[in-house]
Write a structure and sequence with these properties.
The protein is mainly α. The protein has eleven helices and no strands.
Length: 242
């Protein structure tokens, strides 16, 4: 009896595996979209060379990224010194720029366009993305300001360094100069600015409670204002009747 149950379980599990959807690599691309990309004048073999044949997954990706270096050597040199290169889990060229349909940074549909870069970086830096969106800079960017800074304005692009690196744009010694590029006369207090979460506890607590107080203050003031108008209208209505 136990043997039959075991055999039945094995067969059932085997059928379950067979019925699972299998992810297959995309073998077709949108030709028009590719031609509209920055690489539209290059043929497939430029990236999918003979070295890519027979490879898949990470091995295929590694070869293709090596092909990126053939044209983008300067970006590769900067990236090799960055905090991202030694992270071990990415990102890489494709993570930030896409694959077949890479658009120039000036294109509103580009992953690295000013209005989209926080979404691109936010795939890994979720907390920082939320913090940025809550900030004045994030609000200005969301409203379409062309002068609002984005992630790359303060951190760089291919050459992003750790905050502990003295050469980093956001190092303790460089923050005042960085902020001073837009905010002339920035005080030394800019050194201590950082991303924070609007939470009741932690570094973001003061801003959290200030926001809460002002939200309630606005609601109370507007509410009293509306009540005052209603009472005034009611008084006029009663007066007209008498």
């Amino acid at each position: 009896m136990k043997r039959r149950i075991t055999i039945t379980a094995i067969i059932g599990f085997g059928l379950f595996l067979l019925l699972q959807p299998v992810k297959t690599p995309a073998l077709e691309i949108d030709t028009n979209s590719y031609k509209a990309s920055v690489h539209g004048n290059m043929d497939c073999e430029s990236c999918h060379s003979r070295e890519t044949q027979g490879k898949s997954g990470d091995k295929l990706k590694a070869v293709i990224l090596e092909n990126c270096v053939q044209c983008h050597a300067d970006a590769d040199r900067e990236f090799a010194q960055s905090v991202h290169d030694g992270a071990g889990y990415g990102p890489d060229c494709v993570s930030c720029h896409g694959d077949h349909y890479i658009l120039p940074g000036s294109d509103p549909s580009s992953l690295v366009y000013q209005g989209n870069i926080s979404e691109t970086c936010g795939k890994c830096h979720r907390r920082e993305k939320v913090s940025f969106e809550e900030s004045f800079h994030g609000k200005a960017a969301a409203l379409g300001s062309k002068n609002a800074p984005d992630c790359t304005t303060c951190h760089g692009s291919h050459n992003i360094l750790s905050v502990d690196n003295p050469a980093a744009l956001v190092s303790l010694d460089n923050k005042t100069l960085l902020c001073g590029e837009c905010h002339v006369g920035t005080a030394l207090g800019a050194q201590f600015t950082e991303h924070y979460q609007l939470e009741a506890k932690g570094p973001g607590a003061p801003m959290y409670w200030v926001k809460k107080v002002f939200m309630w203050l606005i609601l109370v003031v507007v509410g009293l204002f509306l009540i005052h108008i209603e009472l005034d209208l009611w008084h006029k209505f009663r007066s007209s009747k008498s």
